[in-house]
């Protein structure tokens, strides 16, 4: 009897072990997508041959991890995309074959050659204050209706750093997505205009990546600290930048062109993949940050990932308290700011009557500092989950002493479209919440009363982007860029 029990137990253990090994042995779980352990410029485009029987089942406490755990596959995929996009480019925008991401940290990167929103949807009609022919990264209002470069998505608030300067944002899309929008779709219609979107009148469906080398649609959003001339920006990946502040955003009422150094603090990357097929409708969402952006909130835990699936206990902390001890300096937190109400974490700067106004000289956000001294006080509401930390560590080791070791994966999000596991909440994403402290600072928690499983989601890439529609109210395949059509 006992023998039978033991052998059954052994068989179960072997089955479990083989499943776990299967997930870990996946060839693409490596520093380079080809399975090698050297940093490479190859963009991963899909997760072929990845056997995942089920995705994230929110209603089940998982007994057999091998069936469900696929998180680490997406974590590697995320890091491989980050390295390929931040690889130095040759003059054609192709990844350099003579230098590497760590040996050359000053040349333009591969993503800088991707299309900007105005390349595809048309530009700003306002008169140019900055030199459009310059090779500095130009941060400007992308269209008349939006100030997306200065304001966090879905909110009307900017983020202010510890030196009193606004954070600015840049958006890119790849050739595959641009082609689809500009007519390479099932009806051959140009979707960059409102009339085109009306005529198209169906849900958008961007191409998915095909291994080994056909990328799917991609969108990238980066967040930058603004360093005035002469300020110390060491430890950041930097670019020479120009910020065009139009009259309506300028304290003096005069439009400005500011010569600055931009320091990378956040990066979102999304790509649509083909495999595993049940995840292909929902893209892969990766988000990275500089490791000294903001400390963990006191008592923070990881948002649920798929190996801890249970439908209960998914609510975020109702606040994300300041850490009791914080000994270092952060880009978006200052331990001297202690006044109970105004230094509350993740509180947006007081809203002025009109736009937030820029000074002509630093600190550019002088009018909005807490106690005339501090920028936005940010804490990270969700701890970074274990496999993201593990994979980040491997890439950091591969990067030696490069400045790129200052960047970390905050998480990679994905969702299933299956009826298997029948999530009552579709799409149900893993991790359940995922945000970037420099891009969704104020959306990390439920303060604004939106609860993902009850309605629109503040704190989840997929749940929020799932609401994106074009002018004819058809879903625009998770892309909010459709709203730039004129
Ligand atoms: C609460 C809603 C919300 C959440 C959460 C959110 N986003 Fe967005 N995101 C937006 C909006 C709105 C825009 C458009 C901003 C603009 O163009 O001004 C946007 C823009 C983007 C863009 C630029 C391309 C586009 O579609 O507009 C990328 C890339 C992106 N988000 C990725 C992410 C990732 C990755 C996450 C999760 C880590 C995330 N987003 C979380 C609302 C959200």
Task: Please characterize this protein's 3D structure.
With 486 residues, the protein is of the alpha+beta class. The chain has one domain (2-484). It has helices at 2-24, 65-68, 71-85, 117-121, 175-181, 194-200, 386-398, 461-465; strands at residues 115-116, 137-139, 168-173, 218-228, 238-245, 256-271, 284-290, 296-302, 380-383, 407-415, 429-430. The strands form 2 sheets. Strands 1, 2, 3, 4, 5, 6, 7, 10 and 11 form a 9-stranded mixed β-sheet that branches. The chain has a two-stranded parallel sheet with strand order 8-9. The longest helix is centred in the first third of the chain and has 23 residues, at 2-24. The protein is globular, with a radius of gyration of 23 Å. The N and C termini lie far apart (75 Å). The chain binds heme C. Residues 146, 148, 153-154, 171, 219-221, 268, 270, 285, 287, 434-436, 440, 443, 458-461, 464-465, 479-481 line the site of heme C.
Largest sheet: 9 strands, mixed
Distinct bound molecules: heme C
Helix/sheet category: alpha+beta
Strand content: 15-25%
H/E topology pattern: HHHEHEEHHEEEEEEHEEH
Average pLDDT metric: 85
Unreliable stretches, pLDDT < 50, 5 or more residues? 8-23, 58-64, 306-313, 419-425, 448-455
The whole-angstrom Rg is 23 Å
For the termini, the CA-CA separation is 75 Å
Shape: globular
Total count of strands: 11
